[in-house]
Amino acid sequence: MRLRDTLATATKSLSHARMRSFLTMLGIVIGISSVIILMSIGQSAQDFIIGQVQGVGSNLVFVVPGGSGDSKFSAPASTQGIVIKTLVPQDVQALTREPSIKSATGEVRGLETVIYGDSNVNATYEAADASIFPMRDFATQKGFPFTKEDVAGYAHVAVIGYKLADTLFGAQNPIGKSIRIKNVSFRVVGVLESKGLGPLGVDQDNEVILPITVAQTQLAGLTYYQDLIIEAQPQYDINFVKDRIISVLRQQHGITDPNKDDFTVRTQADSVALLGTVTSTLTIFLTAIAAISLIVGGIGIMNIMFVSVTERTREIGLRKALGATDGEITQQFLFESTILTVAGGAIGILLGALIVTLIWLGVTRFTTIAWSFDFPLSAILIALFVSSATGIVFGLYPARQAAKKSPIEALRYE
């Protein structure tokens, strides 16, 4: 029998039991669409998160207290809740004398209740010197950033995110108004333009930026910094600047053994690589879970093919009596299972694409998240390959069982 005739016969057999064929495909449809959705959302989320990190600035270097060992993916001790006091103002002064560094500032952060009149909201405060504004590309939509004179003079001034301004002041102009944080008053001098998420996942539109001098002494009560932000000179390679920072800090801290560093230096490239590894691993893990439904769907196809072989025993006997070979019988039933899975895969791809599109429309229309629509080609290729392989793997055994039937016994079957 020619291949075209085998294909036509297989298609005709499936069309005679449309509902059963559809229900058989359903497991494959659900499995493939789940894989498509998770891979697409995972890729979109990865692009979004990495884009947010890159948006902070490609020429920035971050220093956190605590060593991380030899691996750039190891977490410093400070990120595990251990208080380390090794980063001090003298470190910033030494770093600003390094020719490859444009500016440097220490940071102190905290989460406190911000109060204005009868309104109050929990918000993050970020304290640094005035260089933080050009360094992080902060622009104000109202008012102005505070200055280095404000920092040196311990001025009680604040620049707030636009969301926080809306929450506290509504339609009022925040400039010149006083807010309270831990019973300390600050005069609002500026409102930031929208910035979205920043380092450590902080919503920069809902935070307060304060002079480091006031925050250290009156809010946090610290003599040390929780981290350092350093801006590299544009003419220098970022990895060279990273090496110079490490050298300066080792000299400042009297460290001669690199394995005993009490700080960790990370560039944006390190952060992007780390986030990419985490999000990719998570996507693979979730996709593997979704793929379990493909196995369930494949088992369903095997069961239905066994039922089909049983129901068509007399047909198999008649075809073999008329000269059909074992290979032709195997080929027909194998074609039937493959058609079911490939058709289910195609429907699953379309269904997955539709759901991903609806999710994208919902996120972009009803939220302010700049979510990008990402439908990776690899997801389609994997879906088609897996669906075809499922049909072959789970259809081969029933097909072989059909081919092995004796024509005489098959014709006698009732």
Describe the 3D structure.
The chain is α+β, with helices and mostly antiparallel strands. The protein has 2 domains: 3-53 and 273-412, no CATH class; 100-231, no CATH class. It has helices at 3-15, 18-54, 89-96, 132-135, 148-152, 162-169, 212-220, 238-253, 268-311, 313-321, 326-366, 377-403, 407-412, and strands at residues 60-65, 101-116, 119-128, 140-143, 157-160, 178-181, 184-192, 207-211, 227-232, 263-267. Strands 2-3-8-5-7-6 form a 6-stranded mixed β-barrel. The two termini are 27 Å apart.
In short:
This protein is α+β, with helices and mostly antiparallel strands and 414 residues long. The protein is built from 13 helices and 10 strands.
Brief descriptors of the model:
alpha+beta, 13 helices
Strand content: 15-25%
In sequence order, what are the helices and strands, one letter per element?
HHEHEEHEHEHEEEHEHEHHHHH
Extended strand count:
10
Major sheet, described briefly? 6 strands, mixed, barrel
Integer tally of domains: 2
Radius of gyration: 32 Å
Classify the secondary structure makeup into a structural class: alpha+beta
Mean pLDDT: 78
Main sheet: which strands, in order across? Answer: 2-3-8-5-7-6
- Our measurement of the CA-to-CA distance between the termini, rounded to an integer number of angstroms, reads 27 Å
User: Portion of residues in helices?
Assistant: 40-55%
- Helices, by number, come to 13
